[in-house]
């Protein structure tokens, strides 16, 4: 995990907006020839060739709504804010090239806090080869807001939308599910223990994978590369930000198809299984509704099955059906239950 720096405080108002921007962005490195101009002018300038299409996505993160700084270190927050956006670009089967970062910040935050935030942002940019090319900086009356826009590129023929799934396609997910949500539960539990007893030492050893998945998610750039290497182009794809059930419903609705998802095929880490037992939670519910996994969910034609079947990062979890068959979970007991946005509908 990323380390936290100790606290000294420089007031933002002593520094002024321009010095602040200069200070925060002085370590920014550019990785792409296509970035003709980065930070420092009225606009950034990006090269575009005729074959490439440009993809654009934005996310806005608000303190108290999307993150809680009492257990989210600012460096992790910066890293995660970038991941959330890159994940959307990879979900289109595209390459992320540039980001802009806009922040609104109250005077409660010293310069050192923003340095931490930008350390996470630049680490993400360097690790994922993305150029930070601009943004905006302003004050807020309360709390921290971060808005990131990511710009990606892809050949027109490579772009994968949500609406291309066809009956008989296989439904595939990368990695494993549910850990990020459980990581949040663990952190919230520790926060409450800490509020009651500030001397309590956090007990997180058992949950390292879960906490890591919550605090330092990785967008699946590697899976986009893997699909390219395997010569598999998904028919539809989406990233898992809200939970498996909600993302399956998006693909099915936009593709006008149904789906059978098999409960026993959903990939779960051992820590997810043991923590669900400990917390008396159902691991299928967590995987379906938890969210923030930032894995990729996609559909492929049956004929591509030989290319993906041996890969430990890819799990076939179901198949696409005709629309009138509905969107269903096939349970371990072989019961068919309709999937709804947050979990499934037991009334059916
Ligand atoms: P303008 O007045 O044209 O909006 P600014 O003074 O806000 O310009 O920004 C100066 C430069 O710094 C621009 O290139 C802008 O994109 C960049 N910038 C401003 N804020 C940020 C930020 N929070 N992160 C990264 N770059 C930023
Ligand atoms: Mg500005």
Please give the structural blueprint.
Layout (H helix, E strand, L loop, with lengths): L11 H4 L1 H9 L9 E3 L7 E2 L5 E11 L11 H17 L4 E11 L5 H18 L2 E9 L4 E12 L14 E5 L4 H18 L11 H8 L5 H9 L6 E4 L4 H12 L2 E5 L7 H10 L3 H7 L6 E5 L4 H4 L5 E8 L5 E4 L5 E5 L2 E3 L3
Parallel strand pairs: 4-5, 9-12
Antiparallel strand pairs: 1-2, 3-6, 4-6, 7-10, 7-11, 8-10, 9-11, 12-13, 13-14
Helix pairs in contact: 2-4, 3-4, 5-6
This protein binds adenosine-5'-diphosphate and magnesium ion.
Produce a short descriptive summary:
The chain has 348 residues and is α+β, with helices and mostly antiparallel strands. It has helices spanning 12-15, 17-25, 74-90, 111-128, 179-196, 208-215, 221-229, 244-255, 270-279, 283-289, 305-308; strands at residues 35-37, 45-46, 52-62, 95-105, 131-139, 144-155, 170-174, 236-239, 258-262, 296-300, 314-321, 327-330, 336-340, 343-345. Helices cover 33% and strands 25% of the residues.
Walkthrough of the structure:
By secondary structure, this protein is of the alpha+beta class. The protein folds into 2 domains: 13-158, 60s Ribosomal Protein L30, Chain: A; 170-338, PurM-like C-terminal domain (Phosphoribosyl-aminoimidazole Synthetase, Chain A, domain 2, Alpha-Beta Complex), CATH 3.90.650. Helix content is 33%, strand content 25%. It has helices spanning 12-15, 17-25, 74-90, 111-128, 179-196, 208-215, 221-229, 244-255, 270-279, 283-289, 305-308, and strands spanning 35-37, 45-46, 52-62, 95-105, 131-139, 144-155, 170-174, 236-239, 258-262, 296-300, 314-321, 327-330, 336-340, 343-345. The longest helix has 18 residues, at 111-128. The structure holds adenosine-5'-diphosphate and magnesium ion.
